[in-house]
Amino acid sequence: MAEQGGIYKIQSLRRRWVVYHVLEDILLSAYAALYIGTIAYYLVSQTLLWGMLAFPVVLLLILFVRKPWQMPDEKIAAFLNKEYPELEESVQLLLIPSSDRNMLQVMASAKADGVLTELKVSHKPFAKSLVVAFVSLLVVTGFIWAMGKIFHVERLFYTHDRDVAFCAPEKPEVLLPQVLGVHITITPPAYISRTPFTWDKFNITVNENASLLWQVKTNVRVKALSLVFNDVQELKLKLSADGRVWTGSRQLSKPGFYQVKIDGKLSDLYKIIVLKDAPPIIHIKTPKPYTYIDAGEAQQVNINTAIDDDYGITNAQIIATVAKGRGEGVKFTEYKIPFANGFAERRTKYSLQKLINLPTLKMEPGDELYFYVQAQDTYKQQSRSDVFRVSIQDTAELLSMNGLIAGSNLKPEFFRSERQIIIDAEQLLKDKDIISVEKFNARSNDLAIDQKLLRLRYGKFLGEEGEDEIGAPSNEPADPADFSNDKKILKEYTDDHDNAEDAGLFEPAIKAQLKATLTEMWKAELQLHLYKPQAALPFAYKALRLLKDLQQKSRAYVAKTAYNPPPLKPEKRLSGELDKIIDPNNKQEIKPAADKQLALRNAVAVLQRLKTGQSISSSDKRTLQLADQKLSENASAQPGVYLPALNAMRRVLSSAAPKRTDIETIEQAVQKSLSALKTTPAAAPSAADMGLSKQYYKNLKSLNR
């Protein structure tokens, strides 16, 4: 019997352990379902179904992984041996069959069984993890609730794919006693292509130009029911056959607020938030804003663009303009190039590509292409990208000597040398078929040597005295404290023109372009050393283009101006008649502009007096009524911001003892509306001398006496 009592105690503790573990798994499943349900509520659909479905799925998954029902009795025995020293670590002997125990095990198990039967095992070790899971569930619940109330998370996760009127008000709506409920059918505008849906609140958020059908139910028969929009317009609802449902429709295009008016009595203010459709957003990934196609490069441009819109895109195309000629003889030709993609699906995002061969647009060397991408959405709003420019290098103009003779330049013969290298390389390519391979390679190598010498000569402008100094930093760190080495000291405090990085002959922009020129020369030299003059030509052309651009930048341009005096009348010269010469006298009366925020500024003082407990007078009430009109205008434009303050203002005007919370709400809205006062020029105030100057002169006068 004793043996059975000890084993029964172990099995009882095992069942308790399993129950606590299952409860812990349930709390953890609720913890996870709360997170999943919250995210799905804001991102997918405003319903609790996702959280309810997530709870059993997560619970089954946790139970399948942890399997608390497979808790062995040996683990319970080990727990008892660890927590209760009086059992002398003999509880596991009770799990051994009686026939398999030796004499010592029988004696130890009998003693452990007696102690275990009388032992009261605490619930704390079993419930510790359960308490942690419960506290975690409470913390996450409070955190999600606080985030939703304080930061309005539902607004942050609003997307155009969800119903536009999903945003519930922060506080419960206050209805008139006669109103039983409202049923609003919202028909989105045609450009959204969405089916109508219903809404059961007076506060609404709709798309621009959406049509609304109100069905207001009353619990008693009323004589008249209407909707008053922005304190100006009134929509009278029609009574149904049963006498309890009032219906009316209206198309909304502007934000604002409205009230329900029943037999002359007005309800609270309800907000109307109208979401305007944004134009398409166009982002051109390639090419760059300015693309220059050098000689030898493919005369084509790949346009890669991404277009995004709220509700769909109906069309997109490339507007290209080709400019031919120069000066007054320039001619422009416009092309409309469609994309290969169709827009019948009217998707919200498109990734479009178009490869344009410039010769198909009748472009020649020296011509320029200007293009931009234009897109149209379902609301027929158009937007366009920035203008991009593509130019084809004119090799004939580049190789010409026009403009290099006159004007100041760096070294005209250097330009001619680069030009000569290009001419010789092109001639070498023409003679390739009539000369031997050895002679072709030798001439190519000679051109590479000429290119190297030319590069080194230009390197002198950057302080490069030799080929080994091109971009080579000094490996010897300078130490100004080492007074034994005068070179190190002078290096720190002098301008070293022999160093490419420290050369101060040119401005940074000119220096950067010179470095780019040397880079292109080095690439051309490399291809010539490899006996590839065809591959070296693009680099040589680019180097020559950069050099000519530098030559143009070095010129100094002086504007030619001429003064054309008015014609003189000889008959009036030296006559001495000054009667028609009068002093100009312009009289202008400048009136200060009316302060449009004067009513709100006056209301601040009245609100301060109301906070001290003073009663509202007739003049104060008039001041608050004027401020109410200004708040009404602001609420019409931004109902989500100013509507609570307008409601509070109405309560203050209708109450003899207004609440302090309403006064503070109005003050916050007024402070948002007020702009900073414009400061007028004034003399700086002099510091008060506390009468010291007068006392000084008085004492000085007495001393002079």
Could you name the key traits of this structure?
705 residues; Immunoglobulin-like; six-stranded mixed sheet; alpha+beta; extended; single chain
How would the blueprint of this fold be written?
Layout: H1 2-43, H2 49-66, H3 73-83, H4 103-118, H5 124-150, H6 153-156, E1 179-187, E2 197-199, E3 204-207, E4 210-218, E5 225-229, E6 233-236, E7 238-239, E8 245-252, E9 256-262, E10 265-266, E11 270-275, E12 281-286, E13 290-293, E14 300-308, E15 313-324, E16 331-338, E17 349-357, E18 368-377, E19 382-384, E20 388-392, H7 395-399, H8 412-430, H9 437-459, H10 486-493, H11 508-529, H12 533-553, H13 598-611, H14 618-637, H15 639-654, H16 660-673, H17 692-704
Parallel strand pairs: 3-11, 13-20
Antiparallel strand pairs: 1-2, 1-4, 4-8, 5-6, 5-9, 7-8, 9-10, 9-11, 12-14, 14-17, 15-16, 15-18, 18-19, 18-20
Q: What is the total number of structural domains?
A: 5
Helix count from the secondary structure assignment: 17
Query: How many strands in all?
Result: 20
What is the makeup of the main sheet? Answer: 6 strands, mixed
Poorly predicted sequence stretches spanning 5 or more consecutive residues: 151-169, 403-416, 468-475, 556-561
Give the C-alpha Rg. Answer: 45 Å
Oligomeric state of this protein: single chain
Q: In what range is the share of β-strand residues? A: 15-25%
For the terminal residues, how far apart are their CA atoms? 129 Å
Average pLDDT metric = 77
Please estimate the helix content.
40-55%
Report the structural category. alpha+beta
Bulk shape: extended
